[in-house]
């Protein structure tokens, strides 16, 4: 296992739909192991393969429930069913979201309160997750990465402009920007 660099907004792999996994061999297992190690070191509650430069439909997650029961896993070739999304303005405290590919920045975004994710585990067994609350937010966020979308792409004003200004200020929004968890001093 190894920690991989996390690419920052502007890297083309983050802005294009990913490819279905067709090879379920050693390379996939190594990718998933590296994703878990990278996610843990960042630290993050989720990590999608494009965030480490790999254009495959894979994401990992780690978000315990209210009783601290572990919810940790990988979803390969997922589909997502989304519940209704409120038309209310996003709340700056309860709807604030961040991303390892826009490190150190947080902006409010309305998401559905419940989702169903279906896909496959590492052994190609079908899985289904019904998630609500923040766990549903994580599922939507990571799935968006597989569709070539970052949460900042979904922001409404004035937050969209604020995110654009931050990206410009840090010199992101172009290929070649990344950071290495555990090495680079970035507050993700």
UniProtKB/TrEMBL annotation:
The keyword Oxidoreductase does not apply. Keywords: Hydrolase, Metal-binding, Protein biosynthesis. SUPFAM superfamilies: Peptide deformylase (SSF56420). InterPro entries: Peptide_deformylase, Peptide_deformylase_sf. One of its GO terms (biological process) is translation. GO terms for molecular function: metal ion binding; peptide deformylase activity. PANTHER family: PEPTIDE DEFORMYLASE, PEPTIDE DEFORMYLASE, MITOCHONDRIAL. Belongs to the polypeptide deformylase family. Removes the formyl group from the N-terminal Met of newly synthesized proteins. This is Unannotated protein.
């Amino acid at each position: 296992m190894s920690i991989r660099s996390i690419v920052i907004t502007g890297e083309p792999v983050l802005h294009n739909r990913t490819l279905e996994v067709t090879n379920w061999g050693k390379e996939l297992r190594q990718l998933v192991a590296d994703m878990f190690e990278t996610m843990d070191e960042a630290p993050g509650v989720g990590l999608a393969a494009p965030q480490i430069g790999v254009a495959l439909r894979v994401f990992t997650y780690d978000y315990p429930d209210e009783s601290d029961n572990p919810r940790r896993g990988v979803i390969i070739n997922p589909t997502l069913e989304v519940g209704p999304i409120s038309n209310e303005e996003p709340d700056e405290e309860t709807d604030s979201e961040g991303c390892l590919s826009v490190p150190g920045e947080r902006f409010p975004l309305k998401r559905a309160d419940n989702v169903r994710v279906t896909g496959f585990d590492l052994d190609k067994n079908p899985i289904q997750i019904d998630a609500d609350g923040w766990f549903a937010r994580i599922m939507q966020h990571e799935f968006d990465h597989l569709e070539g979308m970052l949460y900042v792409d979904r922001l409404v004003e004035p937050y969209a402009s604020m995110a654009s200004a931050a990206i410009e200020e840090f010199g992101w929004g172009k290929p070649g920007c990344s950071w290495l968890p555990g090495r680079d001093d970035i507050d993700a």
